[in-house]
């Protein structure tokens, strides 16, 4: 049987909204709903909303922004939670802060608690994996990392991205699908070439470069991808430590840090310096500052792969 009193506790608006929707989804669609904002509601309005009904019909009372309420409204709400009216479900959204913070513990003793705390950077990867699993998908770690790189850290945007990707790819979501969807075919080709180059796969990197150029991929896109990947190597060359902790320092996702650190181990300090110079020269060339862009791209890919 569903608890009649729920406390949605935490500062993340999206997680709080999702938790509240999940509670309501378990109740009758015919239930009467009342939404009150604790900072605006009067004591009389709150008392009326939470008082017993003559007919004991099913009711849902959602109290939002409870951290903004004064002491008197909170006392009324607390009494309603201790002895909820028949047929009533109370949902209290509270950030966990506010002037009357001490009331949080009182509500926690009575209510079923649903946490909505902001996620730490290192937790977003597992959260996003679970988001895919809501749709029956089992994404690879690099697919999850690619989506985080493409979309960012906002949970609402990430959840929307997963929903769109699953729908638009018939559930066949992989790294290429993510990059095609968010950056376009040209950038996808450049990204793959750059990964092969920094890993030292010269033959594959050059073959991919020629094919991409024949298919119309812009030298600018390949140059940008090379610069991005070489930049990652430069950040993590010679670095040791916990990827989760390093991720905060370098502004990258822990999975990407771990993956890049593995590649960076095969680089020397001199090779990193040379690669940085190569991509700087390449970017200048592809932007029209002299030279043949397509030849310059191939030459840069070859030299970077050899340095690796």
UniProtKB/TrEMBL annotation:
Pfam families: DNA_pol3_delta (PF06144), DNA_pol3_delta_C (PF21694). One of its GO terms (molecular function) is DNA-directed DNA polymerase activity. Residues 191-300 form the DNA polymerase III delta subunit-like C-terminal domain. The keyword Flavoprotein does not apply. Its EC number is 2.7.7.7. NCBIfam families: holA, PRK05629.1. It comes from Corynebacterium lipophilum. It comes from the Bacteria. GO terms for cellular component: DNA polymerase III complex. It is an enzyme of class 2 (transferase). The lineage of its organism: Bacteria, Bacillati, Actinomycetota, Actinomycetes, Mycobacteriales. This is DNA polymerase III subunit delta. The gene is holA. Belongs to the DNA polymerase HolA subunit family. Residues 6-95 form the DNA polymerase III delta N-terminal domain. Keywords: DNA replication, DNA-directed DNA polymerase, Nucleotidyltransferase, Transferase. It catalyses: DNA(n) + a 2'-deoxyribonucleoside 5'-triphosphate = DNA(n+1) + diphosphate. GO terms for biological process: DNA-templated DNA replication.
